[in-house]
Amino acid sequence: MLAIKRVGLLVSERGYATASTFRAADTIVKKTERGNPKPDPNKLVFGATYSDHMLTIKHTNKAGWGKPVIEPLTDLKIHPGAKVLHYATELFEGMKAYRGDDGKIRLFRPDLNMKRMLSTAERSVLPTFDGNELLECIKKLVQVDAEWVPRSKSSTLYIRPTLIGTEPTLGVAAPSESLLFVVTGPVGPYFPTGFKPVSLLADTFHCRAFPGGMGAFKAGSNYGPTIYVNKLAQEQGCQQVLWLYGEKRYITEVGTMNVFMCIKNKKGGVELVTPPLNGLILPGVTRQSIIDLGRTWKDITVSERDITIDELLEAQQDNRLLEMFGAGTAAIVCPVERIVYEGKSYDLATMDKGAPITSRFHDEIVDIQFGRKPSKWTVDVA
Amino acid sequence: MLAIKRVGLLVSERGYATASTFRAADTIVKKTERGNPKPDPNKLVFGATYSDHMLTIKHTNKAGWGKPVIEPLTDLKIHPGAKVLHYATELFEGMKAYRGDDGKIRLFRPDLNMKRMLSTAERSVLPTFDGNELLECIKKLVQVDAEWVPRSKSSTLYIRPTLIGTEPTLGVAAPSESLLFVVTGPVGPYFPTGFKPVSLLADTFHCRAFPGGMGAFKAGSNYGPTIYVNKLAQEQGCQQVLWLYGEKRYITEVGTMNVFMCIKNKKGGVELVTPPLNGLILPGVTRQSIIDLGRTWKDITVSERDITIDELLEAQQDNRLLEMFGAGTAAIVCPVERIVYEGKSYDLATMDKGAPITSRFHDEIVDIQFGRKPSKWTVDVA
């Protein structure tokens, strides 16, 4: 086990009500007179199309939180000295609204996003708030732009809550002025024509997260530094990075996703392994859902435990690595078919039989998200 | 020696001309009709006051770099989906303009800032440019706002070049649209009434930088995560964090500064120790200048080498730790008088004799910056 000490108790672990918060009931709604045309749902590029409205909520240390405002999407006016542009005083969340066959719009486990957002805010010394209130504001925003939630069995409305430090002074310090905003936009299915497995570069130099760092938080500072490494992966014919940590080369994440490996153990059972929440791993909503679902299945054992690249490749050599996949809100699951490590290429068996375990997780989660299977994990929006 | 491998050759090491660049000769200057009143130079807070003008240069992958524009300082219009607000696709530099007793305005080793900015841009997959051209643009900006360069023996004009990714799409990828901007503002002396030494919390959990990360680059992602840790230091009665790395607890940096320790060695000589540029350390301009100056002194030896907290505290116990100080553009040098480590407080000897080595570095550097001592390190602006 990686010996990584815990940081002190964060607000999210104490429950997420805080002394100072905005209230969804105070929301001011200014609707646009004419919205933008909706794009062809079959031609959507992730994160490139935005709905007509956004939610903004200002915070100052002096006045606390202002009233939530839902207004037409527009450029933000940001002072060039704002801390967010210099010191990455910024965090975000990623979630989706799903329109079911019954026409209803639902969110999927949004309480987990609110909890993580507050945990990241506290670690980033950005202002905290009542997560239930933000969730109600987000519901209102989705209601205002309900026509932007695709009528589709697979397209969805992506929701991006963001919190930035806007105080226009250059000291490296907690901002006295901040802005919480939420934008949304329709996104197509990650795999429109069935799974398209990815290949990974297991990078032995670069590192996504480290003990005492930000790996467990959804902060902007975790993402910018990865772009260069992903470029190196692409130069080696891979799509994404398999992130390793430390001298023992523990497997941590895949690209911007959590990672799962289905390994036949030496007794013949199937173990689904994912790295534990040791401070290096983002507590993904899809990750947690796969763990929770997997624990109800009788044919696999779910383990949150450390696993090194050596153990993975040993299982691969012994034909015991059945499937490997990334997991995240965008793709739900993303099968892995190849790993490049220390100049060698390893072809994995993931797709040999059509990735049955990966597929089953995908289908069970999608059925819940689109309301085809009733679940306590969904929250009705409209 | 910390065994940290090097990342591939960055543009800064190949010389900083690139195929695509803007040209200072193309700069469009739009002066304000009436400037803001200049503040009292004795009441300046770092980074809170801005000069009248800013420099902006747009980049798109399609059109390349646009023309540099010097215009009145104004808010930037940034799409809420711009990558800089989500993924910390941002970097900056910190430099100063100094008005000498002769009235001339000078920059101090700006070539090192340009080199580091290009190195960080390449690591951040932000667009590169010809550093000489940006330097000429910065000179023009300082000339336009020359009245903002304090007439003072100690106040200066702080210069903040910044490069952000503005493409309004949510994919984690290199931005196809970026903005380079430079703002400036007058800053007072860091120590208006003589050195005010600081106390440090040697944090054993949090980490500023790690192998395979961004520690050697001036990227926003290195700074946001430190704000929380500095808050912890303040809660323990310290002003700043002494950043340690790894199980052996190597000393790396102090707050947002490089660190130097003057140690009497067992043979009686004085060694000035600073950690080497091993990938965890920002290549500071003041750091380099102290090393360069120190190597011309006959009474000390300068070592760029690893040093652990244990070695430091052993020297402290033996009364061989003469002085310790941080080094950076803002403070030049910042004496350290106390370290809190594992619940114990250690009073250092730094100020016992008035910090003679620290003071000598301070004075030699200031004399060069203000043109009192001729040097190849200064570049005339006007």
UniProtKB/TrEMBL annotation, chains A, B:
<dbReference type="InterPro" id="IPR033939">
    <property type="entry name" value="BCAT_family"/>
</dbReference>
<dbReference type="InterPro" id="IPR036038">
    <property type="entry name" value="Aminotransferase-like"/>
</dbReference>
<dbReference type="GO" id="GO:0005739">
    <property type="term" value="C:mitochondrion"/>
</dbReference>
<dbReference type="GO" id="GO:0009099">
    <property type="term" value="P:L-valine biosynthetic process"/>
</dbReference>
<dbReference type="InterPro" id="IPR001544">
    <property type="entry name" value="Aminotrans_IV"/>
</dbReference>
<comment type="similarity">
    <text>Belongs to the class-IV pyridoxal-phosphate-dependent aminotransferase family.</text>
</comment>
<feature type="modified residue" description="N6-(pyridoxal phosphate)lysine">
    <location>
        <position position="218"/>
    </location>
</feature>
<keyword id="KW-0032">Aminotransferase</keyword>
<dbReference type="InterPro" id="IPR043131">
    <property type="entry name" value="BCAT-like_N"/>
</dbReference>
<keyword id="KW-0808">Transferase</keyword>
<dbReference type="InterPro" id="IPR043132">
    <property type="entry name" value="BCAT-like_C"/>
</dbReference>
<keyword id="KW-0100">Branched-chain amino acid biosynthesis</keyword>
<dbReference type="GO" id="GO:0009098">
    <property type="term" value="P:L-leucine biosynthetic process"/>
</dbReference>
<dbReference type="InterPro" id="IPR005786">
    <property type="entry name" value="B_amino_transII"/>
</dbReference>
<keyword id="KW-0663">Pyridoxal phosphate</keyword>
<dbReference type="GO" id="GO:0004084">
    <property type="term" value="F:branched-chain-amino-acid transaminase activity"/>
</dbReference>
<keyword id="KW-0028">Amino-acid biosynthesis</keyword>
<dbReference type="InterPro" id="IPR018300">
    <property type="entry name" value="Aminotrans_IV_CS"/>
</dbReference>
<protein>
    <recommendedName>
        <fullName>Branched-chain-amino-acid aminotransferase</fullName>
        <ecNumber>2.6.1.42</ecNumber>
    </recommendedName>
</protein>
<dbReference type="Pfam" id="PF01063">
    <property type="entry name" value="Aminotran_4"/>
</dbReference>
